[in-house]
Every structure is written in C-alpha cells, then in structure tokens.
Amino acid sequence: MTSMSPSARPLLNRRLAEFGTTIFAEMSALAVRTGAINLGQGFPDTDGPEEVREAAVRALRDGRGNQYPPGPGVPELRTAVAAHQLRRYGLSFDPDTEVLVTAGATEAIAAALLALLEPGDEVVALEPYYDSYAACIAMAGGTRVPVTLRPGAADGEPAFRLDLDELRDAVTDRTRLLLLNTPHNPTGTVLTRDELAAVAELAVERDLLVVTDEVYEHLVFGTAEHVPIASFPGMRERTVTIGSAGKTYAFTGWKVGWVTAAPALLTAVRSAKQYLTYVASGPFQYAVAEALALPDAYLTAYRQDMEAKRDLLATGLAEAGFGVYRPAGTYFVTTDIRPLGESDGFAFCRSLPERAGVVAVPNAVFYDHREEGAPFVRFAFCKRVPVLEEAVGRLKSLAG
Length: 400
Hints:
Layout: H1 23-34, E1 37-38, H2 50-62, H3 75-89, E2 99-102, H4 104-116, E3 122-127, H5 131-139, E4 143-148, E5 150-154, E6 157-161, H6 164-170, E7 175-181, H7 193-205, E8 209-213, E9 239-244, H8 246-249, E10 257-260, H9 263-273, H10 282-292, H11 296-319, E11 323-325, E12 332-336, H12 345-356, E13 358-359, E14 361-362, H13 370-373, E15 376-380, H14 385-395
Parallel strand pairs: 1-13, 3-4, 3-7, 7-8, 8-9
Antiparallel strand pairs: 2-10, 5-6, 9-10, 11-12, 12-15, 14-15
Helix pairs in contact: 1-12, 2-10, 3-10, 4-5, 4-9, 11-14
C-alpha cells in the first residue's frame, strides 16, 4: 500500500518556503566535515572577560535566575542597560517601562517585527541584510523592500554606501517601518551622523517606525563613530533600539539581548516577546549586568584587539588576490572574488575548504537581488591571532 501524505498542502508555512537551512549551519557543517578553518560564522573562539564568566557561576550557585526570571528581565540588567545608554549616548530610559531583556538580538528582532507589522505592511531594509530579518518580516506577513548598499568609497577607501535618494524613493504609503543595522553586517559600513540625520528626517516626515539593530555598537574602528538614531530629533518615540551582550563580551551562547524604546513601543514588543521564549538566560542576565558596568578600558582594549585582527585578515586577503572592503565596524570583512577570476560566491565558498582549507560565507544569501551580491564573500576575524595567521597562509595559495 502506498503511504499517503496527511495533506496535499506543503507542510512548511508558505511564508517560510523560501527559507531553508541557514547558510551558517551549512558552512559550519562543511568546516567540520573538511577540517577547514571556520571564518564563516561570526562567533569568537575564546571566551570573554573572566570576571563576567565568574559572575555567571556566582549567580548559578546563589540561585539567582535558576527559576523563571521576571518577564521583562531581571531588574539589575534592565538598570544596567539604562545606565549604559545614558552614559554612552546621553539617552535616558526608565528601566521599568522602557527596557526589555530578550533571548539575544535575534528574538528582539522577531518580537519587534511580529508586534509592529500587519500583513501587507512594507518594511524598508538595507540590503544585504542579516538573514533573520527577511524570515521575521515574512513570519509577520510583511513585505520587505530592499535598498541596496553598493560599492563606493568612504574616506578614500573602498566601502559600501547608502544612496539616500534610493532610500527615500523606496518609501510608499504602505511603508510601516525602516529596519536599520549600523554598524552593518555583512558589509562593515557604519552610517555617518549626516546619513542618520537624513534617515531620521525621512522617518519623521513620513511618520515611520524605526527598528535599529546596533549589536556591533562597540566595534567601530578608525575615525568611524556609532551614533544611535534614537538620539536624533523626533526619533526617541518612534525607535526600537536593539542591543546584545554576545558581540561585545564574547559570550554569544548566552543569548542575552535587549530592547530600549518608549513605553508604548516597548509594551507592544513585550506583548509579542512573551509568547516566544517568555524568558531566557536567567543567571546570565545577572552576569551581563556586571559586564555592562566594566570600565571603559575593557571596551577600548577589545576594540583595539579587533582592529588589529581586522588589519591582519584584510591585509592577508588582499595579498591573496581578493578585492577587500576594509570594514569601519563589526568583525567581518567583505571581499570581491572577481580579481581571482571568480564570480559565483556560492560556488567559491563551497569549493574553498577543499582548495584552501578555509570556510567563508557568500554574501548573496543576504540579498533579495542575488546578482548584486554574487561576487562578494564574507570572512569573520573574531578569532585568535594564530588561527587568522594560519588562515591567511592557506588563502595565499589562491594567489598562485
């Protein structure tokens, strides 16, 4: 007897039909299978500050967070997040009504989009974009409208730039919100103060909400500066700002993120968030509260260390024959493979482990317009120096 499907309809919700296994899972599995150095997925290969790790151990032993923490997050962390925003940016938030702790930035993005979108709403997002953005917009029934960052120059160096006229033209009467990411993954672009001022003016003029992913806020290099868009006139009451401990303190597995927003916006996001994880990462919340209170010397040293690693990898990639876009922020380098005689990032990344013993990620997965991203490949430099040096040595075989 032939077994029959319980339904002729596909099992996966059609809103998610275009999304399969993430590229990060595919490439990480490829790294394991081939023994290649994994510069694809953006996680550090060392833990963060010992005192922060010990704070988590203390919380576990003292029974803090081992049971359900409060839905909005433990008071200590909400207070620490508010203090961080005030100290770093002069933005004042009430820990009780304007701060929400989430299971990493990924849940914060999902909760914000599920809460704020109705089916048919348009979301303008900067392309290329982190893959969860597209999936969360789809789950909310929204329509994504990409505005493509294109190769150009900044301060005389190759960089990906935002066309403000294209951004303005993308906004229609159906646009509900702008989804920003600065410092930007995967291109490493950091939007300037003038660019953000123009985006803010557009949001106010067209009465748009803004969801802004600022998880790389402390990873900006050289003359670049991170300026929260919530600090611009008319923006505090319309902006949902997302932060995370994982990228700043190198504990990505803890999944501790947060949202800061005006009370009405925060209430909306919390209404969706409570039906996702409800709560998460109890003991780690206490540890992150202590991390946020570390002296600025930690952030300075962390940024300098990452900048040196950026330069090591970027220089090595250039010597191997790649076109290199040296990032102004994040811990990723985007490269152009056309100088190597290649044009298909997917094929290149799938063959790279065998050719050079290194794993990277094709940027095309972050584009709706796949052809725009086809020749670009992303490498992560949040690894130990010997690992990066070994990777650079292997990649130089491509130049031969």
